[in-house]
Specification:
The protein is mainly beta and 318 residues long. Helices cover 6% and strands 34% of the residues. The chain has three domains: 104 residues, no CATH class; 85 residues, no CATH class; 99 residues, no CATH class. The protein contains three helices and 25 strands. It binds 2-acetamido-2-deoxy-beta-D-glucopyranose (NAG) (5 copies). One 2-acetamido-2-deoxy-beta-D-glucopyranose (NAG) binds next to helix 1. Keywords: Signal.
Length: 318
């Protein structure tokens, strides 16, 4: 079974363009990088939600002649290196962090204009601009800025707030996609998360998450109370579990360190809870789509709105 996935998406507007992959040298010790077609995307746990979109393999050494509204072609994926991993194997490292089982695919954003228009919450002081007003088939390339310098633009959905991990004052919402579901409805997604009643507004990380900004990636709250555990553990998998002492502080790259008999668990809006092992640390790294955004990564999996706790192994109240 395929494990962690990290789907690099290159959104393009012309079906005859794609990205160029320069084949690694034949002596490269790392696993081959997968090239995904549409059925691969459908069968991929993390990419499943994008399975309706026309997808094709990046074409090796193909000459790209069309101008692209999203970024110049060919695109470089910088800072991807083949390095010796702690387990003695060679793995791909993206900005110094190992990425296992990595694949690339090209997708056409044919549904870009089928979702409801996103409104900016003007009371919060947000200004939304279209990045490509001259390309009417590209509806979701918004850029947001806040009238108050100490605030940043967040995505608001029915039940939650999502920080984009922006490093610039003007936020580019690259992770906001209009996706056609398997039931043929069109929905807004932020990364792999389906949204409802989407709007964009300004706030601060502290006000929105009750916790400070870490390394431009957004908040990484430390769970210390039963109420917090209930809030973050949406599937109730760890309900009643005894919460241990935390001797860790989130930073750009950190370990969750817990007392003996306790395990570090990362909760997020995008994934099942992840139980950490000794060798798994958490990092804030580059969003593969753009250098302007950062993402939290745990065990090579991107997590949205993460929080972590030290929880007693096998020890619970009920
Ligand atoms: C997609 O690629 C997989 C291998 O990754 C291959 O088995 C399958 O036949 C391909 N499907 C199509 C429709 O090309
Ligand atoms: C800007 O936002 C900060 C943080 O919420 C707040 O403390 C400050 O008063 C705001 N400034 C203005 C001019 O509204
Ligand atoms: C979402 O928006 C619809 C239409 O504007 C509205 O009827 C509904 O009550 C909203 N739902 C929530 C949870 O805000
Ligand atoms: C996390 O802990 C492991 C094992 O002790 C260590 O090898 C690694 O360097 C640590 N990572 C960070 C970012 O502190
Ligand atoms: C926790 O319980 C499982 C199943 O009952 C058992 O296999 C495991 O050894 C226990 N772990 C510890 C640390 O007690």
């Amino acid at each position: 079974m395929k494990g962690a996935i990290f789907l690099f998406l290159v959104l393009i507007s012309f079906s005859d363009t794609c990205l160029v992959v320069r084949s690694p040298s034949p002596v490269c010790k790392c696993p081959p990088i997968g090239l995904f077609n549409q059925s691969d995307v459908e069968r991929n746990a993390g990419g499943y939600y994008l399975g309706n979109r026309p997808t094709w393999h990046p074409v090796v050494n193909r000459v790209v002649n069309n101008e692209n509204v999203f970024g110049t072609q060919p695109r470089n994926i910088g800072n991807l290196k083949c390095e010796l991993h702690t387990d003695g194997t060679y793995q791909w490292y993206f900005h110094g962090y190992p990425m296992f089982d990595m694949s690339l695919g090209c997708q056409e954003d044919t549904d870009s204009c089928s979702c409801p228009e996103i409104k900016g919450n003007s009371e919060s002081g947000v200004t939304l601009t279209e990045r490509f007003p001259d390309t009417p088939d590209q509806c979701y390339f918004y850029e947001g800025s806040c009238s108050n310098d100490s605030k940043e633009a967040f995505v608001y959905s029915k039940n939650e707030i999502i920080s984009t991990g922006t490093v610039t004052r003007e936020v580019r919402f690259e992770d906001l996609l209009c996706v056609k579901d398997y039931d043929n409805n069109f929905d807004w997604y932020f990364f792999n998360e389906k949204l409802e009643n989407v709007s964009i507004g300004c706030s601060t990380i502290k006000d929105a998450f009750g916790s400070d900004e870490v390394c431009a990636c957004g908040a990484f709250p430390i769970i210390t109370t039963v109420e917090q555990l209930e809030k973050y553990d949406k599937t109730n998998k760890y309900r009643g579990r005894i919460i241990g002492a935390n001797s860790w502080t989130p930073s750009c790259a950190f370990n969750v360190t817990c007392d003996d008999g306790y395990v570090g668990v990362v909760f997020s809006d995008s994934n099942e809870p992840v139980e950490l092992t000794i060798s798994s640390y958490i990092t804030c790294t580059y969003n593969p789509i753009t250098n302007y955004l950062r993402i939290w990564v745990v065990n090579s999996v991107r997590v949205l709105n993460p929080a972590a706790a030290c929880l007693k192994i096998n020890g619970s109240f009920n």
